[in-house]
UniProtKB/TrEMBL annotation:
Gene3D superfamilies: 3.30.450.40, Winged helix-like DNA-binding domain superfamily/Winged helix DNA-binding domain
Identification of the protein by name: Helix-turn-helix domain-containing protein
SMART domains: HTH_ICLR
Annotated HTH iclR-type domain residues: 6-67
Species per Swiss-Prot/TrEMBL record: Streptomyces marokkonensis
Keyword Lipid biosynthesis: no
Region (Disordered): 146-165
Amino acid sequence: MTAETSQTLDRGLRVLKLLADTDHGLTVTELSHKLGVNRTVVYRLLATLEQHALVRRDLGGRARVGLGVLGLGRQVHPLVREAAMPALRALAEDIGATAHLTLVDGAEALAVAVVEPTWTDYHVAYRAGFRHPLERGAAGKAILSARQQPQPQPTGEAEGEPGYTLTHGELEAGACGAAAPLLGVTGVEGSVGVVMLSEVVPERVGARVMEAAREVAEALR
């Protein structure tokens, strides 16, 4: 800590990060041990965070992230979209297909940024805000494939080489998609991909989508 920083705020932010990293919540005692402070300090931190709905405590006394973080999270999408746009533009122009950045929103995949190629005679109309189940489409399946991996290495689904996922006609008849997950970005779960009107995805598309996903991940770190 330096003279310009707040120890209390620092501890409160550390509490939020610790709670965000667990699915089952943490007790006051567990937080006390992880923070290296006494239980009284933890009680005060939790009480303050609860007043702002950033933390909630269940009937068993375990603290969890509160719904108040959703209000803060609404401002994340524009920042993520801005960071991803250069890589998406390059991908769309290179492949000649509609490129997209998709993030998880509950049980759905949400397209938060879309770039269409400028030089093609026709391409798939795919708009930001489009939603679909994670279990359908290359974008969602790429995200699910990353969840199943114990190591932060790119891995693919059936039909694709390791690192990306291919689908055919799952979201739109006659269209196919390729997507690769974002890896190594704390707090962001998503994928980068393309969708095109084609029976077969050209061989080079998978590697190019993986490259774009790495570029977006680097921009978000």
